[in-house]
Hints:
By secondary structure, the protein is mainly alpha-helical. The protein has helices spanning 2-14, 16-28, 34-60, 64-106, 108-118, 133-137, 139-144, 159-170, 174-182, 187-212, 219-238, and strands at residues 31-32, 121-122, 129-130, 156-157. Helix 1 (2-14) runs antiparallel to helix 11 (219-238), helix 2 runs antiparallel to helix 11 and helix 3 (34-60) packs parallel to helix 8 (159-170). It is globular and about 60 Å long.
Amino acid sequence: MAHLFSSLLLSLASNVDNFAVGIAYGVKRLRISLLSNLLIALISGVGTLLSMSVGDVISSYLPNPVANGLGSAVLVAIGLWGIWETWKIEKKRKRKAALRSREISRSPVAAGSYQFASEGYSGEVGYSQPRSGLEEFAYEGFVDRPEKADTDRSGHIGPKEAIALSFGLAINNLSSGVGAGISNLNVTLTAILTFAVSALAIAVGFVLGKRFSAKMTGLWPGMVSGLLIVLLGLYEYLIP
Length: 240
């Protein structure tokens, strides 16, 4: 029962991002087909399986108490780091938004430069810097600009587009998967739950976003995900 709770907790933490993206797509009325949703869920599950398998291999070389303590410490550290990074990103986003607002009110030229920046570039006033490859695949980009995954402008996310989206979502969860594997969570059970929760999170998020048009900000998904991972680390340490 303890393993089931831990696996479910990790699955929920790994799919907060999927829920946020589903809401963003519902708000924008960008449909995600059943096949596309299942592809995203499959890649999320496989990513969890692979990363946890790496952690499981590491734990096999360690005594159980050491593996449990190390895995728990890794999970807590990853969760706290995620909360810290989310807070920094959101603070930077608000600072840029305030600066953009002031510049737009002063000069129409600045407004044009920021419009250009918002379409794939970032930087200070009057300067545009291309985003790095990792930034392009970060889930925040899909939440803020969900239409960028719809490369053919068809109004729905097809299977090929879903693959790119799924990697953007899964890449954030690899480190926590390794930590969970070191803590000896059930790899197969967690991968299956991640698959199921991913598909459900996107579907439910889409329905809610379409119905209520209430977009989650970039702050809450990262904070909730980080907090859940911290709780998982503490739980695994206290109840091995």
